[in-house]
Amino acid sequence: MTSVRSGLHELNLASRRAEEAAARRFQAVQWLHSVVGQLGIPTQPSEKEFISCLRNGMILCNAINKIHPGAVPKVVENYSHLQSFNREYQLPQAYQYFENVRNFLVALEHLRLPGFEASDLEKDNLEFGSVTKVVDCILGLKAYHESKMTSSGNGFYKHIKTPTFQLSATKVQPLSASKTSRHLDMSSVRDKNDCIDDESDKLKVIAKLFADHIFNSKENIVENLMSLEHGSENSRVNFEKIISRFPELQSVFKNFLSEGTLKPSDLKSMPLEELPVREEDQSSRSLLKKTNSNHRRLLKSQEKELAVLKTLFINTKQDFKEFQVHLQRDLMELGNQMQEMSSAAQGYYKVVEENRKLYNMVQDLKGNIRVFCRVRPIFNREMKGVIDYIGKDGSLFVVDPSKLQKDARKTFQFNQVFGPTSTQDDVYKETQPLIRSVMDGYNVCIFAYGQTGSGKTYTMSGPPGRSASEMGINYLALSDLFLICDKRRDMMTYEIYVQMVEIYNEQVRDLLAENFTCTKYPFIVPNIRTCSSEDDGLSLPDATMHSVNCTRDVLKLMEAGEVNRAVSSTSMNNRSSRSHSIFMVHVRGKDTSGGTLRSCLHLVDLAGSERVDKSEVTGDRLKEAQYINKSLSCLGDVISALAQKNSHIPYRNSKLTLLLQDSLGGQAKTLMFAHLSPEEDSFGETISTLKFAQRVSTVELGAARAHKETREVMHLKEQVENLKKALGAEEPKNVSYSGAKEIKSPFSRPVATTERTPPRLRRLSIENCSNTKVTNHLEDRKGVKSPLPSRRAKRMSLEGPKPCKTEEQAKGDLTMEVNQLKNPRSPVSSYQTRAVKVDGRTSIPQFQLLQTPDKGSSRNEVQIISVDSRTNGKSSHIRKSLRTIGKLINGSEKRKENMPTDPRSPLGVSTNFSGIKSPHTSNAKTVRRQSLTGVMPSGPERSRRSSIGGNTNPIEINGVNGARNAKTPPPMRSPTKIGKQWA
Ligand SMILES: Nc1ncnc2c1ncn2[C@@H]1O[C@H](COP(=O)(O)OP(=O)(O)OP(=O)(O)O)[C@@H](O)[C@H]1O
């Protein structure tokens, strides 16, 4: 490491030195530029560019002449006058440069300034520090110039050597022109007027010719000559080559040889510096020697540095290799760890996925209301958020801004949580399987809950003026349903109808009624039917029904509905919905074998709960807010009652809960979207929404059931109907069976029913008591004006069954039994039938219930009554047929339930269990719930299904449903033809 560090230090030193040299060079160029004008090179030239521009000596001579006029009397600028000379001597052009360079160096000498050697301008000498010498010389000249300027030309200047000057300064000697350097010696030969002897002249000519050749060819003659010492063949050949190129040199050389002054053998063994020279050249030779020794010293030190650098480089290389090996090893380990982690993660995700599936399955079996949570983005960037973490597994952490770190965190768990960045598509993807099951005959309800401005309308419908990617669930669901229609075209034909209503100030208003005017609200829907799915699938038969065939139709209707919806601006939301909107999609399907299905999708956008102090509403808005909050509180009560498995579920306390009764208590699949505003100041509302959502997620509705009927079942049902009719016609004399006839009269029936109503669940009666207004309303609807039946019913249910009956009462019982036969679908009625049997009233001889374990569990199931001795042979035969058909239907139903559902339904898996795990007798259900939840049943005879989903009003059960059974088409008050068609 130390070697690396010292190496780096040296490198730093070298780079600093190079920087310093460059700075000095640029300074020299700048000065030259200011003195002689354009140099034709960049202001920051490379060493090569710098030297090449000075090589002809012109710039140097001009510069010295500027600061000391006449220092170089004659500057060779145009070589044309030398043409004759060139021709005579065949001199290369390079020689001409020496004229200037020599004169410049001589002038420098006169001025006693540091100089350099002409060879320093050669290209090959660049790397030996020659540029430094030239730069030093020019900077010396500059300093001289400046001192001359400041001392007003008194001419006194003493050159102060800079450290970098030292090397070159050693060569500056007060030499004559002939002694300055080898080149200068040679050039002085050219002066024909000088008195020199022949030999010297010849030597100088040879030297000059050599120098020129070296300069032009850039051959390292010194090295070549040096190599001659070692007798290198190549060197000799090179030397001879050089000589052979110059005929005049050859002759001079030959003369030398012939005169014996210089023998080739001497030449061979002697380095150039040691060639015998004349006395007067001794000083220049010594200078040359000195210079060479300096060079050698420099070379040696550089060699040393190079060796250090080499070792440094080798060490670094070694270190680097080691480092590389380490790195590779580490990388390999990291790769292995990553692989392990990724396989572990994969395994984890698989397990999570499996868990989710299993959890969903359990939820399907229990019929849990699924809860998705959606957090909208924060609009005010300065506002802090309370959402701390959103997990993929449906976990959500919120932070209470008013508390310290430790207690601040609250955790919630839902089926799915969508963060602020989730798109409408992300949300729909998770909802899709549920929505698709509508096409398999399941009733589905999706409702959006949350404080005002939290994004309910955004999720359900999309923002106002939405683009295709912003379409909400309502639109996407319909598009999807159409897609499925298209895919299944070969097997099924579907009809899709929509209704859209709102509950505004506890009034149901038809948003799609023709000529709707917001100011008058004439389209108030009078009737909400509960348990409608048991009959015609319409809970709001009086609302306009529109057939839709494509998404465009849906879009038009949705837009119309939205225009009609009550919306106002509050301080919490510019377009706050002031009503609960319910978009109902009715699907009716018929397969190629004649089987039918019908289902309903409720898409509910609830109005937002709001704190009136925060929303700052007054007048009408305040009234609206109060209605909204009241109905939401009723929804909360229903959810609480369902979650606690109370016997009394207060559906009737508001129009909203009454309308959602089927979805919250029936056999539907239900999903709630809990919407959150993540801002700090909404923390209170956020927590209450989350708590409500958490409670909703604990509600178990029991396994959902598809409303499908095969052709076989339909056929058998038809037969049953016919046989029943035939039986009714056959036995008027044998049995006091007036009820079978009377059932068609809505007025006579309630009396008989009231008289013989078997003991009912206590909660139902309480519910009726608690809301006499609603009961009265329903009674009105049925045309029963007298409050007596309901009062009677209440009394009876509170009192419990009466043990003894008169003959007349027995007849009444018969009537009741027949009514139940007419209405076999209600789980409550089946329960009642059993109750009758249990409490001993089965002593009535004419009718006895079969001991069917699944009695009352299926809509398609037929209750078989035993025949007493008083029936004649024909009716006995009919009854036998009825029994056989009943068995057939029951068997077929069970087979159907055990059969796997349509594989195209993503939620089909769950339905596989329906036949096995969804027993419908209250006992079986209680046992199942107990096994799934570990919660003990609240009472031995209590059926939650019957308490939740069953019809709670005896009058309604026997009245409404009975009436509907009696007159087959459902009572569509027909605002459109479609309504009739549907009915
Ligand atoms: N996920 C989201 N992404 C972007 N904008 C959203 C999102 N959710 C809601 N918004 C915007 O927030 C505003 C309020 O949303 P929205 O009207 O849907 O709330 P709301 O819960 O229906 O309110 P209210 O109960 O008062 O009717 C709207 O401008 C809507 O576009």
UniProtKB/TrEMBL annotation:
InterPro entries: CH_dom, CH_dom_sf, Kinesin-like_fam, Kinesin_motor_dom, Kinesin_motor_dom_sf, P-loop_NTPase
Keyword Nucleotide-binding in annotation: yes
GO molecular function: ATP binding; microtubule binding; microtubule motor activity
Alphabetic keyword roster: ATP-binding, Coiled coil, Microtubule, Motor protein, Nucleotide-binding
An annotated GO BP: microtubule-based movement
All residue ranges annotated as the Kinesin motor domain in the record: 368-699
Family in the record: Belongs to the TRAFAC class myosin-kinesin ATPase superfamily. Kinesin family. KIN-14 subfamily.
Protein name from the UniProt record: Kinesin motor domain-containing protein
Organism in which the protein naturally occurs: Microthlaspi erraticum
Organism ancestry: Eukaryota, Viridiplantae, Streptophyta, Embryophyta, Tracheophyta
